[in-house]
Write a structure and sequence with these properties.
2 copies of one chain form a homodimer. By secondary structure, chain A is α/β, with parallel strands linked by helices. The first copy, chain A, folds into 3 domains: 150 residues, Alpha-Beta Complex (Aspartate Aminotransferase, domain 1); 41 residues, no CATH class; 230 residues, 3-Layer(aba) Sandwich (Aspartate Aminotransferase, domain 2), CATH 3.40.640.10. Chain A has 18 helices and 14 strands. The first copy, chain A, has a 7-stranded mixed beta sheet, sandwiched between helices. A 3-stranded antiparallel beta sheet of chain A has the order 10-14-13. The interface between A and B is large, with 89 and 89 residues.
Chain lengths: 468, 468
């Protein structure tokens, strides 16, 4: 197992979110430095509390014998107990048994009902796959689509590097299309057209188009018109649409509320609504749940051939079953406490408090960046990241070159060393040649956030002065 | 995404444990038939209760705020509360945050300590990877090793079909070596030699040797001498050893207690102990824990190049983190209640009761099979399966052919239709040409087991009479 003898695709795959910067930060942490990890959207790691109702039900579902003890039962709200009882009844054999490889049948029905309530259009539970986090769903779909390096997948640039890593791992080709920063990272149809044509000219079979809404790392929310444009483009070009919609609850503006691609397709009507293939992804890790550690995600396949569903079912069966606790968490995300139930008010209050705070933090962060010399930042309309542009002076670019680093990596390494803030350089997500960015989460607490902004301010001033 | 356009490796991968028989059984279940699922080692699904201490600690770790309530705390044994507190302290940010992609650092240290206590030799926590069940570990290792179809992996026949499925999925070649049924499914060195030579003659680069101890589906426990033979063979032939040791606590005889390959290598001394590459797998799904649904597994890499460890770390980071609840369960498996702690006696009593019952069930099952006409069964010395041989009469083989089925699939389908017992045909695991088997778990409760044996008896008598 010498590294020289390993699978080439595996060696070439890169995953920047836990790449050089993260490893360096972890090393500093081990040596005793206080590190502010804003490299990955991991809210509980930065002090965010889980929603109480979710954890109450999870605890009772994990240890159902607790509900035989009246002394314990009376310490819980009645709806947490009745919910846990009903989940245990649906599972039948407790969370220690494997579920169906696609996830519990009753859960897939609940997810289908949730999608139908959200979109106003039916959803088929047999076309839903639950997985250990949405990342596994994305990988499963790409693994099915990609045959060899002639197969290209269109991915936005900047993108979430799960896509580049997985496409590389499965031996396919990534064809990037650029998002337009001056218009707030919008999708431009002529750029999509340029990208697909370029790949085809190079002899590629372009199989799928990935888009992320709201955008990771770019934070933009897509309008219905943009989504319709994407749908029509995919239909004309015969591409599978892969809709990364994991941040659908993280929306910090009101002009463009979240609309799912599933809904857009259904409402376009006609052949496109019945033929356009779509796989969309969702998770309990994002929103204000932040239950990253539980690894609960799903994908819904729309207009996908039943034979393909069968093949993916077979492949999911090799791992036997997604973890059951993540599945129970998905059930709770799809079915919050109802009006009139004892936990209803507190549940929504907890959600609202977290959501309002995220909005304030999005403002603190982007305002903070825009106040810095040589830094500009599109407002973070959604998700949990800001992606400022670093207008690095030529001397900084030169110094980076000498150090053998990409210029934004150079900036981010200095930032880490001087402030303890761990971020991901823009090069990990992709960006236009000669442009530089970084991605940070907006997840430190509000008090901490002010400290973070101050740290950026003094670091950036020194850095820019040095390389003026 | 038409099935004709999917990845060929994915389409060709087969996973019999949830294959034709399982799908048929699931269909019958949906139509209202009572099905006894003995196709997969899923103990809780057949009524086995989880160990109380494990679930107490998991519940408190999932909802730590419960421990702020003295009324709740006093309903738990003190060591469950203190254990949950200490785990929460180690985690720092609760189970909702991603862990390191290899698993929590403190947990990997605990696993290393557990391995050292078991084997008497040190273990390096940085060479341990926690994953969502051991299946993911196996897949990760095979994915790293296999470059293309010239790379061959030696696998026992019969084998656990995770191996054949994953090798196919990653585009490698499986080279089978036969286990010897007359000697109780023992490993024969000349057969290993034949197998490696055959592959090399066909131009293959033989990269690794998989063995399963105790054997799945075959149930044999390996002696230290056999393990030494395997180690020396792998060393001479320069093969990575992949040790599937997930059933290490499921041992139903006392002549050959479990010895890990790690220990064998260390005690062989000399260059083999320092150079032979080994990856071993373990899990909370087996033993008497049966926590399949939690998906907690790990692999330990021994004598593996640090560059390769780094590559596997990178790949594991694409999924961000294994699920945290499975990791906490691993911690509890490695650290049962200590002598003097309040849960100590009850914990070991629960374990012993389950273990003793499994031993009785292994006897009921194999005795039952050996009492049947044209069926013989090697005693199930370990694991949770019996793998009887079906000496099918020529007329049955012919009838199967006419029905377009493998003869053992034909037998198993009839068994399912007439008795509701769902098993896996031997062809799913591999067997010698012209021989037929089936795999069943020994997991139904003891009362149910007697009913199962009766059902086999009347079904088999009818089947054998029909095709005499």
């Amino acid at each position: 197992m010498h590294p020289d003898l390993l699978n080439r695709d595996l060696k070439e795959a890169q995953y920047a979110v836990r790449g050089e910067l993260y490893l360096k930060a972890d090393e500093l942490r081990k040596s005793g430095r206080e590190i502010i990890f804003t490299n990955v959207g991991n809210p509980h790691n930065l002090g965010q509390k889980p929603l109480t109702f979710i954890r109450q039900v999870l605890a009772l579902t994990t240890a159902p014998f607790l509900m035989d003890n009246p002394e314990i039962v009376k310490q819980f709200p009645a709806d947490a107990v009745s919910r846990a009882r009903s989940i245990i009844k649906s599972i039948g054999s407790g969370v220690g048994a494997y579920s169906d490889s696609r996830g519990y049948p009753w859960l897939r029905q609940e997810i289908a009902d949730f999608i139908q309530r959200r979109d106003g259009h039916p959803s088929n539970p047999d076309h839903i796959f639950c997985t250990d986090g949405a990342s596994v769903s994305v990988r499963m779909a790409l693994n099915a689509i990609i045959r060899d390096e002639q197969d290209a997948i269109m991915v936005p640039i900047p993108q979430y590097p799960l896509y580049s890593a997985a496409i590389r791992l499965y031996g396919g080709s990534l064809e990037g299309y650029y998002l337009d920063e001056p218009s707030g990272w919008q999708f431009k149809m002529d750029e999509l057209k340029r990208s697909v044509n370029k790949a085809r000219k190079a002899g590629k079979d372009v199989r799928a188009l990935v888009f992320i809404n709201p955008g990771n790392p770019t934070g933009q929310c897509l309008s219905r018109a943009t989504l319709e444009g994407l749908a029509k483009f995919a239909y004309e070009e015969r591409l599978v649409l892969m809709a990364d919609e994991v941040y659908q609850e993280n929306i910090f503006q009101s002009e463009r509320p979240f609309v799912s691609m599933k809904q857009v397709l259904a409402e376009l009507g006609g052949p496109i609504s019945k033929e356009q293939e779509l796989i969309s992804f969702h998770t309990v890790s994002k929103g204000v749940y932040g239950e990253c550690g539980l690894r609960g995600g799903y994908m819904e396949c729309v207009n996908v051939h039943p034979g393909t569903i069968d093949e993916m079912y077979k492949i999911s069966s090799i791992n036997l079953s997604p973890n059951t606790i993540g599945q129970v968490a998905l059930s709770l995300m799809c079915n919050p406490p109802k009006k009139g139930e004892p936990s209803h008010a507190s549940y929504y209050q907890e959600k609202q408090t977290l959501h309002d705070s995220l909005i304030r933090r999005a403002h603190i962060m982007t305002d903070g960046f825009n106040a810095l010399e040589n830094v500009s930042c599109v407002f973070t309309e959604g998700v949990m990241y800001s992606f400022p542009r670093l207008h690095l002076p030529p001397k900084a670019v030169e110094a980076a070159k000498k150090a053998g680093k990409a210029p934004d990596t150079f900036y981010c390494l200095h930032l880490l060393e001087e402030t303890g803030i761990s971020v991901v350089p823009g090069s990990g997500f992709g960006q236009k040649e000669g442009e530089f960015h970084l991605r940070t989460t907006i997840l430190p607490s509000e008090e901490k956030m002010k400290e973070v902004v101050e740290k950026y301010k003094s670091f950036n001033a020194k850095f820019m002065a040095k390389y003026k």
